[in-house]
Structures are given as C-alpha cells and as structure tokens.
Amino acid sequence: MNQLKYDYNDCYFYAYNMLMRALKADDIDTGISKALYLAKLYLNIDDIIIYKHDTDSNQYVHLFNQSLINNSSELITEVLNKRIDILKKEKEQLFHINKNGIGDLFIMPINKQNFNYIVVINSNKSTKLNEEFMPILKDILNLVLEKYDYISELKKSAIIDTLTGLNNRYVYERDKEKLDNTEGIIYGLFDLFRLKNINDNYSHIHGDSYISKTAKILQTSFPEYTLHIESKGKVKKVDSGNRLYRIGGDEFALISKTKSYEDIQRKADTIKKMVEELDIGVSDPIGINYGIVIGDKNKTLKDLTIEADSLLEKDKRETYKRLGLERRR
C-alpha cells in the first residue's frame, strides 16, 4: 500500500497547517502565534509579527503573537511608528524599509476591508520572499482575522449598548452582584430630562441624538480607561476605577472606586450645564438630573440605588419647578 508522502518544502503544506493551527486553537492569540511560527520556519526569517493600527493612539501595536516577540521587536515597532505616513499610503503591496540595526523590514497589509492590520517580516539575511507563499499567507491571515473580528463583535454586542458604547444593563447587573459592600464606592444615577417628550414631539432620531451626545459627555467626564503604550509597542488599558452604564432608555449609572464625592459632584454639575447646552435640533428644554451618594461597609448597592434615586427625583422636581413646567404623570 502506497503511503502519502509530504514535501515539507511545499508552501501549500505549510499554508494548510498554518490555517488549521490558527482556526483550531482554543484562543486566537495562540492560534496565530502557531501559524506565524510555521511561516517563520518556511521563509527562514528572524521575525514575523502582526500589528494593528490603534486609532486612539495613532500607533501600530502588537495585537497577537506575544510569544514571538523578542529584543528586536521594540526597535521594529519604533521604526514602524516613525514611518506611519508611509504605511498609510502603501496599502496594495508588499514593500520594505531598510534599517541599520534591524535589517530589511517587509511590510504587507493583510486586512481587505480597511488595512488596519499589517504583517511585518524582519530578516537580517539576504532574503528573497517566496512569491508563491506570500499571497497565500496574506489570505490565511485575512481569513483568521475576519473570524477574530466576528467573534470580537459578538462578544462586544453582548456587553455594550450599541447606541452609546457604554456598558449595558447586563454588565450593570453582573457588576452589582460582585459588590459585597460599597465601602469606598461613589454611586451615581443620571436621568435625561423629558426624553419621552423629545421622542413624541420631534422624533426618535432627535431622541437618539439626545442619548448618544449625553453619553459622550459622560464618557469624557468619567473615562473608564486611560491608554498607556508599553515599551514594546502594545497598548495597555489602565483601569481608571470608573464604570459607566446605560441601564434604561433615559437612565445612566456610574460606579467609581477612585474618585472623591466632591470631585464627582463637581463633574456632575458641569455635565448638567453641558447637556442643557447640547444642540439636538429641538426648541424644548433638555437637560439631565442626577443623584450621587457615598457607600460604606454596611450598605449594599441596592441601598445606594434607593438613596441616589431619591436625590435624582428631588433634582427632577426642582428642574420642573425652575422651568415652570407641569410634570406628566
């Protein structure tokens, strides 16, 4: 019986194994690391790294393949981000940058939709990249990254409110269960003033604008994370201690572990003024009401919710009285 013999120099053999390893791995990082390691062997090169363009920092950062990063990776990242103007222009082909101390950097965009992913191949040897293998490599990585993006979007949609980008009600309820006591916690409830009136008298388009623009103000005032770029070029999100949620049509919640009551109260007053001045294309008054309370070891989040809701209702009554409006029951 004839046995099937593999040609281990055949690019299709390596390509098939790359694809299987990438797609069958338990997590995407491990899968891509294994796939790239095979490509590294086949091409006989020093480094092969996937980068993604981070829009917040306008930098290219390592996305996967941490196990393949070595001492030269930091220098490669530095070179890339100094030549970011070139990377944005060269979208259709493999091109290279010669850099003393690194060697030849071959850069290939691999994402068909917006070119935000690139693969960087580094070689100190005199390397002529395999013309047959490179298009296959590009297609394989693009296929795997499309799967990664799809899974990431599914995960994101389960926890993120699509209109505002804030944490949704599911995350809010999950986080509430984790809090045994509220010592050191500042809790706030925010409620858009007369959102139903805007929806009824104008349109839900105006109402959605009201919601999304207010959420943006809240996000700017209480950022959940700050971005830090590590020496090897990877963006790290540093927890700021704030959690923002959209918990209803017109309701938002804040849980903060690092800010003082006075600081949050000042910010809430500023937020109130900013929302009142928003342009959403209506002539009716708009605004936001809030209630902010301090936790302690004897209070649950439910206790804080009741206290904050009471303060919010008081603030809302005062707003109606100030504007001379009748509150709809």
Question: How would you concisely characterize the structure shown here?
Answer:
The chain is of the alpha+beta class and 329 residues long. It contains 10 helices and 11 strands. The protein has helices spanning 11-24, 28-43, 73-82, 84-89, 133-159, 169-178, 195-201, 204-221, 261-276, 301-323, and strands at residues 47-54, 59-62, 95-99, 103-109, 117-123, 186-192, 225-229, 235-239, 242-246, 251-256, 288-294.
Q: What does this 3D model show about the protein?
A:
The chain folds into two domains: 11-157, GAF domain (Beta-Lactamase), CATH 3.30.450.40; 169-323, Reverse transcriptase/Diguanylate cyclase domain (Alpha-Beta Plaits). 45% of the residues lie in helices and 20% in strands. It has ten helices and eleven strands. The strands form three sheets. Strands 2-1-5-4-3 form a five-stranded antiparallel β-sheet, with helices on both faces. It has a four-stranded antiparallel β-sheet with strand order 9-10-6-11, with helices on both faces. Strand 9 (242-246) and strand 10 form a beta hairpin. Helix 1 packs antiparallel against helix 2. Residues 1-6 have low confidence and may be disordered.
State the share of residues found in helices, binned by percent: 40-55%
Sheet with the most strands: spatial strand order: 2-1-5-4-3
Largest sheet: 5 strands, antiparallel
Q: Oligomerization state of this entry?
A: single chain
Tally of DSSP β-strands: 11
How far apart, in Å, are the first and last alpha carbons? 86 Å
Structural class: alpha+beta
Q: Give the count of helical stretches.
A: 10
Radius of gyration: 26 Å
* Arithmetic mean pLDDT: 82
Q: Might you state the CATH topology name of the largest domain?
A: Alpha-Beta Plaits
What is the chain-wise order of helices and strands? HHEEHHEEEHHEHHEEEEHEH
Low-confidence stretches: 1-6
Shape: elongated
